[in-house]
Specification:
Layout: H1 12-20, E1 27-29, E2 35-37, H2 41-51, E3 55-65, E4 77-83, E5 86-88, E6 94-96, E7 113-115, E8 124-126, H3 127-130, H4 149-159, E9 163-174, H5 188-205, H6 208-213, H7 215-232, H8 234-246, H9 248-259, H10 261-264, E10 278-286, H11 292-304, E11 309-316, H12 323-330, E12 335-340, H13 346-356, E13 359-365, E14 369-370, H14 376-386, E15 392-398, E16 404-405, E17 408-409, H15 416-421, H16 428-437, E18 448-450, E19 452-453, E20 457-461, H17 462-467, H18 480-490, E21 495-505, H19 517-523, H20 525-541
Parallel strand pairs: 3-9, 10-11, 10-13, 11-12, 15-21
Antiparallel strand pairs: 1-8, 2-9, 3-4, 3-8, 5-6, 7-9, 13-20, 14-21, 15-16, 15-20, 17-19, 18-21
Length: 542
């Protein structure tokens, strides 16, 4: 946190321009002091900007914040829309989309979407987009003082070929300085700035062909606007037009500069996407099962490889040890520990770990594993690079006594849990099905495409993981790996079994500790979780 004290009053535009010169960050989040952000707001808008280098500005869904009720249980949050981006009307007027409407009163697409611009309440700007598009090389036009400066930036970005976006999953709340959208609540200074800056935007950014195309609605709107002010506060009109006339030379120069903006500013597609900090992120979810053997082998593999490896440990409220202290003893470098206050399940925790990953590839690896081959990361990385269209790589997994662990599987039939958990498993039918399901008929020393593999060891691109939305968090435990592989297959990317990469895994079968179907369901919470996930899987995939 840096603090900049000004001995003189600086307006909104100049104040932000001064702060811009103090930092060199690629992305600039303008954060008003009357805004209330949900915890993941910044994460969501930054993630969108990183995935869309052509986007120059982004903002989330902004609702009204009832500041007087901030101490109540809902913290004063409302469903009244403050701004869902900016929109341009046929008359040329630019306004906040859906402002003042209730979010539950009409249907909207629950997805990110391109908008004309973003509100000055909470805009996230790309420095490489906004600074080169300004003749003053600033964030906001310094002559605007306050009001409409966000609209002026929106025009600049569109002229340079940049887009602006509404990021759906980013949610914030804004306390308006006036409660209703009426001119009577605004001071004369606010009204003057708003009207004058509106005129300046028209003069600087509207081209003759645009004026001709929208001449009738423009004339009607501007005539009505001027008539309103002449009736209520004629001084606003005279002062606004007077200042416009006084600054006509500067406005004309800016108008000419903006005409050649497309040639001056590099195309957005020339900006490279940010490079990952690491090559591989190893994500491990633990709950009282993190152990020295695993961490020792992980440390040895991280030391042996030339790749940049990030270790992420997601601890689900372990009571047998302090995960951060255990990890620090073995992995003091390039390790992140996320301590959680409950057991959120496997898929949910993997997603949480993936959020911290700054790597090109993700390796989901259970803590009851050991990596006897210290070059396993290099092997998986090389195999994935060799097959660029691959969705997931599943290594060969052995028990600690050297026996094969049949982790590659075929997609299950609907009756699979019945066969596994009842006397059917000992019948000839059950044995045939189990053999087919676990691919006992397959030579596990050969590379081949498979339907899915157990989530104890899965290697995949972070871009693919993010594209499909990660693990489906409706599966607390079990079937989340089958579901993940199915969704990867649906993108046209195959899942490969690669025996060249090998590791050891305990595989405890926690859901089948008790004999007898009914007894196991009653006494074993993991068995119940397995059945619940099975039902969810059947319902999802019909």
């Amino acid at each position: 946190i840096s603090y900049e004290r000004s001995e003189e009053t600086r307006n909104f535009a100049i104040g932000h321009n001064v702060l811009l010169t103090k930092h060199n960050a690629e992305l600039i989040q303008v954060l008003n002091d009357d805004a209330f952000l949900e915890p993941t707001y910044l994460e969501e808008v930054v993630r969108y900007m990183e995935a869309h280098p052509e986007c120059g500005a982004a903002s989330g869904r902004i609702f009204r914040w009832d500041f007087d009720r901030r101490d109540e249980s809902d913290q004063g949050k409302t469903l009244v829309i403050d701004a869902f981006g900016l929109e341009q009307l046929p008359s040329g007027k630019v306004q906040e989309r859906f402002r003042g409407r209730s979010a539950d009163a009409f249907q909207m697409k629950h997805q990110d979407e391109e908008v004309f611009g973003v509100s000055g309440c909470l805009p996230l700007y790309r420095r490489a987009a906004v600074v080169p598009t300004s003749p003053d090389k600033t964030l906001f036009d310094p002559s605007f003082i306050s009001y409409k400066e966000d609209v002026e930036v929106a025009y600049r970005l569109k002229k340079a070929g940049y887009s602006s976006a509404l990021v759906w999953n980013a949610v914030a709340y804004h306390r308006r300085s006036f409660t209703v959208n009426t001119h009577a609540k605004q001071s004369a200074a606010v009204q003057l700035q708003s009207y004058r800056n509106h005129l300046w935007i028209l003069f600087m950014h509207w081209r003759s062909h645009a004026l001709a195309r929208r001449l009738v609605p423009l004339v009607l709107f501007e005539g009505a606007k001027m008539g309103y002010w002449l009736l209520h506060r004629p001084s606003i009109v005279f002062r606004a037009w007077g200042e416009t006339w006084k600054e006509r030379g500067t406005l004309r120069r800016k108008r000419e500069w903006y005409r050649g903006l497309t040639e001056r500013v590099p195309a957005p597609t020339t900006f490279p996407a940010p490079q990952p900090k690491y090559d591989v992120a190893v994500i491990t979810v633990t709950h009282n099962d993190l152990n020295e053997a695993y961490l020792s082998s992980l440390r040895a593999a991280m030391a042996a490889t030339s790749l940049r490896v990030q270790a992420i440990i997601v601890d689900n409220d372990s009571t047998a040890f302090r995960a951060n202290e255990v990890v620090e003893r073995f992995l003091s470098k390039d390790a992140t520990v996320i301590l959680r206050n409950a057991d959120f399940g496997f898929g949910h925790s993997c997603n949480r770990g993936a959020k911290e990953a700054e790597a090109e590839y993700l390796f989901f690896l259970n803590p009851d594993s050991v990596l006897p081959d210290p070059f396993i990361f290099d092997t998986l990385y090389r195999l994935m690079r060799r097959r660029p269209g691959t969705g997931i790589l599943a290594p060969k997994v052995l028990y600690f006594d050297g026996r094969l662990q049949e982790t590659p599987r075929r997609f299950p039939k609907w009756y699979m849990p019945f066969v596994q958990r009842t006397a059917l498993k000992d019948s000839s039918f059950g044995k045939r099905y189990a053999s087919a399901f676990t691919m006992e008929d397959y030579n596990h020393d050969r590379v081949r495409m498979i339907d899915w593999a157990q989530g104890s060891a899965l290697f995949m691109s972070k871009a693919v993981f993010d594209e499909i939305g990660g693990f489906d968090q409706r599966f607390w435990m079990y079937f989340e790996d089958i579901d993940l592989c199915r969704r990867v297959w649906d993108t046209g990317r195959p899942v490969y079994y690669v025996p060249e990469a090998q590791l050891q895994h305990a595989y405890g079968k926690a859901s089948a500790k008790e004999k007898g179907f009914v007894k196991n369901i009653i006494t074993n919470s993991m068995a119940r979780a397995h059945i619940v996930s099975w039902i969810k899987y059947l319902w999802k995939w019909r």
